[in-house]
């Protein structure tokens, strides 16, 4: 906890210096978050060149908007928000989310490890089932409406809090919570039904 707090204070100091016009300090922030932002946006675009363009445009917009940034907020969350808005304006977000989610919550609130559906992960048969499982999760996520797909990816894959997700996609925290719950419910039903049937 102390380390996280220390890192947050250090980041706030860097951002304040960048806000005062220190371009070299802003370059340090770019270097710190460029790879992470690239990884995040690529999950939505599935195109390396488009992602690189988006990352560059995001940092340009962030630099211009630095005076408006409040240092009590998370800088990375702010970058995600700019990146998502930029992607939407460029119509760069594709309809597929290939990231695998291995744990879901069923209707009773119990966490289910979907890998438990595999008979033996390390055998050839198990590897085949694993591929089928990944495909099933991909398909289930693909079938979610965008309003549910975005928050579940931001939560389960990127590890953002409900408050951060609300900031990124621009809706109340309560809406984020209900959408994630609904997405988990749908994924749970689809995955359990498919593998219990087989």
From TrEMBL:
Residues covered by the RNA polymerase sigma-70 region domain: 29-89
Keywords (A to Z) from UniProt: DNA-binding, Sigma factor, Transcription, Transcription regulation
Pfam families recorded: Sigma70_r2, Sigma70_r4_2
InterPro entries listed in its UniProt record: RNA_pol_sigma-70-like, RNA_pol_sigma-70_dom, RNA_pol_sigma70_ECF_CS, RNA_pol_sigma70_r2, RNA_pol_sigma70_r4_t2, RNA_pol_sigma_r2, RNA_pol_sigma_r3/r4-like, WH-like_DNA-bd_sf
Keyword S-adenosyl-L-methionine found: no
UniProt record, GO biological process: DNA-templated transcription initiation
RNA polymerase sigma factor 70 region 4 type domain segment(s): 135-185
Entries under CDD domains matching the protein: Sigma70_r4
Molecular function, one GO term: sigma factor activity
Keyword match Transcription: yes
Family assignment from sequence similarity: Belongs to the sigma-70 factor family. ECF subfamily.
NCBIfam families documented for this protein: sigma70-ECF
Protein name: RNA polymerase sigma factor
């Amino acid at each position: 906890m102390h380390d996280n707090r220390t890192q947050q204070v250090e980041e706030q100091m860097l951002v304040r210096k960048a806000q005062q016009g220190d371009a070299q300090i802003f370059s340090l922030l770019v270097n710190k978050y460029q790879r992470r932002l690239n990884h995040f946006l690529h999950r939505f675009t599935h195109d390396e060149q488009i992602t690189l363009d988006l990352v560059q445009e995001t940092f340009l917009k962030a630099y211009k908007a630095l005076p408006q940034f409040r240092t009590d907020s998370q800088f990375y969350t702010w970058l995600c928000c700019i990146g998502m808005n930029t992607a939407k304006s460029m119509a760069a977000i594709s309809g597929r989310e290939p990231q695998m989610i291995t744990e879901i919550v069923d209707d009773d609130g119990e966490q289910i490890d979907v890998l438990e559906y595999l008979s033996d992960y390390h055998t050839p048969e198990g590897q085949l089932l694993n591929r089928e499982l990944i495909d099933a999760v991909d398909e289930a996520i693909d079938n979610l409406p965008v309003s549910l797909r975005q928050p579940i990816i931001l939560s389960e894959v990127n590890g953002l809090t409900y408050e951060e997700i609300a900031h990124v996609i621009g809706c109340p925290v309560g809406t984020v919570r209900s959408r994630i719950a609904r997405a988990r419910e749908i994924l749970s039903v689809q995955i359990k039904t498919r593998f219990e049937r087989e």
